[in-house]
């Protein structure tokens, strides 16, 4: 059971950056946040989806129609630009002449080599990548195989709609700030993260279906217990960097939006919502009323 939980935990990490047809349900990953007469909508998203995941739940469209302004984690348009992609690639490559085999344990390297051989991928292709870079590239290859893409994701979909409708857009962090979070991902935990990523990729299709089900129904309890609980215990540094620090940085901005006169729709990765450090619990602790849509 511990081994299985570790696998789920590590896949939850990858899902933060790669990180969350729809069935009708009583609840979704959209919440109305209010205090007094002021309100905004907070939506947990899946960054990559495929065509079968559309249309999205009606609650997303209803929140979009009610909002004057859309708030994303970062500027989706810039994040898709060639310049951003070049910067992202540079951050997950060794810049000091080292190679992958010198950065991980021999047993980890052997497990990676076996995995790549089974998929007819030459390990030399990955030689200059950092361990996190390898995890992200392999995850990307598998997700592309399943038809998953950012262009089908929630943010890209609504960024395009807002552009067509001339709706105002704003952002919680800059693309460069987001890149820095990615660059620190897994530091000090490289071998464990890479090994469990290799195992998770063997069941990626099943795991994705489970994660989407939690996301579609707004099941934050299962998101926390199945992914974040183990992440807090096994990968505390990554949990702090990727979730806690960013949530805490975003909260003052979200609070100021609730108090403003307009109505905002804030869209963040679904894993930023659950748990004791999640945005929902922290907003509730500050006296805001939450209503799941």
Q: Can you tell me about this structure?
A:
The chain is of the alpha/beta class and 293 residues long. It has helices at 2-17, 58-66, 76-79, 82-91, 106-118, 131-145, 154-165, 175-184, 190-200, 204-216, 220-234, 236-259, 279-285, and strands at 30-35, 38-45, 69-72, 168-171, 264-269, 289-292. Strands 4-3-5-2-1-6 form a six-stranded mixed β-sheet, with helices on both faces. Helix 11 crosses helix 12.
Quick structural summary:
The protein has 293 residues and is of the alpha/beta class.
Task: Name some characteristics of this structure.
293 residues, alpha/beta, six-stranded mixed β-sheet, globular
Number of DSSP strands? 6
Topology order in helix (H) and strand (E) letters: HEEHEHHHHHEHHHHHEHE
Instruction: Name the poorly predicted regions.
Output: 1-25
Radius of gyration: 19 Å
Helix amount: 40-55%
As laid out across the biggest beta sheet, the strand order is: 4-3-5-2-1-6
Q: Determine the structural class based on helices, strands and strand pairing.
A: alpha/beta
Beta-strand residue fraction:
5-15%
Anisotropy-based shape: globular
Give the number of helices.
13
How are the elements arranged and paired?
Layout: H1 2-17, E1 30-35, E2 38-45, H2 58-66, E3 69-72, H3 76-79, H4 82-91, H5 106-118, H6 131-145, H7 154-165, E4 168-171, H8 175-184, H9 190-200, H10 204-216, H11 220-234, H12 236-259, E5 264-269, H13 279-285, E6 289-292
Parallel strand pairs: 2-5, 3-4, 3-5
Antiparallel strand pairs: 1-2, 1-6
Helix pairs in contact: 1-9, 1-11, 4-8, 5-9, 6-9, 11-12
């Amino acid at each position: 059971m511990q081994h299985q939980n570790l696998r789920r935990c590590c896949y939850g990490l990858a899902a933060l950056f790669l990180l969350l047809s729809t069935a009708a349900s009583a609840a979704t990953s959209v919440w109305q946040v209010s205090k007094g007469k002021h309100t905004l909508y907070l939506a947990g998203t899946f960054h990559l989806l495929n065509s079968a995941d559309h249309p999205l739940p009606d609650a997303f469209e209803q929140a979009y129609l009610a909002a004057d302004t859309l708030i994303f984690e970062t500027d989706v348009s810039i994040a898709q630009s060639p310049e951003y992609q070049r910067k992202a690639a540079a951050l997950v490559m060794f810049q000091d002449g080292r190679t992958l085999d010198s950065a991980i344990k021999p047993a980890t390297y052997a497990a990676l080599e076996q995995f790549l051989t089974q998929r007819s991928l030459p390990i030399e292709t990955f030689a200059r990548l950092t361990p996190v870079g390898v995890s992200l590239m392999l995850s990307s290859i598998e997700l592309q195989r399943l038809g998953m893409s950012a262009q089908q994701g929630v943010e890209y979909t609504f960024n395009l709609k807002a552009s067509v409708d001339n709706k105002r857009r704003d952002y919680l962090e800059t693309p460069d700030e987001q890149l820095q979070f990615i660059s620190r991902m897994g530091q000090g935990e490289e071998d464990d993260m890479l090994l469990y990523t290799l195992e998770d990729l063997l069941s990626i299709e099943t795991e994705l279906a489970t994660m989407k089900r939690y996301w579609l129904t707004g099941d934050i309890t299962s998101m926390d217990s199945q992914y974040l609980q183990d992440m807090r215990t096994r990968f505390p540094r990554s949990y702090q960097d990727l979730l806690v620090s960013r949530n805490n940085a975003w909260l003052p901005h979200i609070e100021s939006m609730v108090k403003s006169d307009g109505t905002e729709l804030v869209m963040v990765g679904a894993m930023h919502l659950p748990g004791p450090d999640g945005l929902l619990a922290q907003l509730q602790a500050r006296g805001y009323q939450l209503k799941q849509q």
